[in-house]
Known about the structure:
Elements: H1 4-16, E1 22-26, H2 40-44, H3 52-64, E2 69-73, H4 83-92, E3 96-101, H5 109-117, E4 122-126, H6 132-139, H7 144-159, E5 165-172, H8 180-190, E6 193-198, H9 224-239, H10 248-258, E7 277-280, E8 286-287, E9 293-294, H11 305-310, H12 318-326, H13 334-343, H14 345-355, H15 357-364, H16 372-382, H17 395-404, H18 407-423, E10 435-436
Parallel strand pairs: 1-2, 1-7, 2-3, 3-4, 4-5, 5-6, 9-10
Antiparallel strand pairs: 7-8
Amino acid sequence: MFTFNTYKSIAKAMLTKKTPYYVQFYINGKCNLKCRQCNIVETNSRIPEMSLEEIEVSAKNLKKIGGAIVLLTGGEPFMRKDLPQIVEIFTKHSLNVRLQTAGTHYATEDMLKACYEAGARDINVSVDSLDFATSDYINAVPGSGKNAIETIEMISRIFRKDSAILSFGTVLSQFNYMEIPAILEFAKNIGWFVSLVPVHIANQESPMGFRSYDDFFKFRKSQFGYLDELEKELIQLKRAGLPLFDSEKFITSGMQFLKGNSPTWRKNNVCDSPNLYFAIRPNGDFSTCCDYSLRQAPSLKDPNFAQQYLSGEIRNRSDVNKIVNSCGGCHYGSYPEVTISVRDPKAFIERSLMVTKFGSNKLKKAKTQSGFVDEIENIKRKYSKVYPTQQWLAQENHDRIVKWGSIEGRKELVKEDQELRKSQNRIRGQGEDFLFS
């Protein structure tokens, strides 16, 4: 699965704790969805995209500083018609590419095949619910939930030729917490992993680049007991062999985060950016992560970036140090898991066994290669205490999903959402950037 360069970078990171082997590259700021728990498109929609030539420079810089795994995300990365060429640039420089998509109609069969042929072997698709009405409400686009499952079916046919890593990206929130075991079983049946990300909600007084302000997703104190039970259940399911990609330490920390507490995955409450990971904005600007944008940011398309990074110039910037030392903490899947894997030998072994050929082959034996929507219906019948979701959803959330299901109700919610976004300075292509200084 991984290149020799990636194994070398990971080994160096474990020894030195100062090799940024994982990088998130937001290749565009466009998306045809308006997911309610996401704000990254609104943050990046005013930022121009890099050309292929500039991305080539960025890839060279990443390899020079020890980069190994590059997440190509957005926006919706498949909205870039040159995505296969971008994949090829990174794989040509021995960097492993991870693709992320919402599984929209932009992820066509031709595009997926072209990305696979260019060297992509790792892909993550957003799946927040097996109930399509819930998915469509969260994504704010009718039909998007079913579309994602159909895309997953296509990916299974195209990527299942060797040790590819296929995974769901599932944002854990009030809307789906009872569904997680069912989502895990569905993933196992079709040969995929599940990667959970606790929902991130900011308050308007302290805006952060990725996080929305939608309180409907936040857990109430009265629900914290459910989170405790879910934590125990997820760890049991993971030990029983269900394909939960997250480490046990990540799961425990994530439940604390959802309760409004500080995450427990960080050493001395400080994150490992930019020593083990960082983010790249669409125009090539360096950032510690997706939540912050730097004034006068270093640029990956600058031929001198590698020299600036290796000399410590970027690590020692006062704004970078202020972020990593004062940030209250996040729980995005990749950053915590990189830290946990590098600093916790048990978690490293656990993760290694999952992503090696042995772990991938176990999932490749899944019999289901088509009829994924039918498979979901089978899962729903089995989990009769979870589906229909109105049995456990908070009444206010159930009412909004029902309202979204009617044309008139949807118009009302769209208008309400537009007005709210305007008041929150979340209009795409407008407003001020979230700059940190």
